[in-house]
Specification:
globular, 65% helix, 8 helices, mainly alpha
Length: 172
């Protein structure tokens, strides 16, 4: 759910923090990072043990460690702001996924280990995708928000798009 996660992070950040200087590239990367890390780990590398797409990066510990790393290793500057934007994107991903409802995962390692057991992830992926229509509604809503943001910020202008790709700033 690419559009949904990026849209939730951008909308949430713009609504709560209202910081025009944030590097949205790192915010969007943070919004996608938990799935990019956990899906291959849980369904390919450790498929015999977990067979789930929600593991370490879907815990409260993962973005918290990124925040601590930013605060400890970088006193100030662009690297600190970028790491913090990455962590905020990860927090918004957890919010969008409703991870607080999966206590064992969200509060790992304090609530025990991840749920285990041989569950075939890939063989049931189509059933899961089509059994939950809200997943598709959320994804469509995310892409609609991103399209509206694209239009509202005038990103059809190549100079404004270049600003996003090179500096990570949304003008407007």
């Amino acid at each position: 759910m690419i559009g949904y996660h990026v849209a939730v992070a951008l909308f949430g950040f713009r609504w709560i923090f209202r910081d025009p200087g944030v590097d949205v590239r790192y915010l969007a990367a943070g919004a996608l990072l938990p799935d990019l890390v956990d899906l291959p780990l849980g369904t390919v590398v450790f498929a015999d043990r977990y067979s789930s797409g929600e593991l370490w990066s879907h815990t409260l510990a993962a973005p918290s460690l990124v925040v601590v790393a930013a605060l400890v290793f970088f006193r100030h500057g662009v690297r600190r702001r970028r790491l913090l934007a990455l962590a905020v994107g990860m927090f918004f991903h957890l919010l969008a996924d409703g991870m607080w409802t999966s206590t064992a995962i969200f509060l790992w390692p304090f609530a025990g280990d991840f749920p285990t057991g041989p569950k075939p992830y890939w063989s049931g992926v189509l059933d899961r995708a089509f059994s939950d229509p809200w997943r598709w509604v959320a994804e469509a809503g995310g892409w609609l928000y991103l399209a509206g943001l694209y239009r509202r910020l005038g990103l059809s202008d190549p100079a404004r798009r270049r600003l996003v790709w090179t500096e990570g700033r949304l003008a407007g």
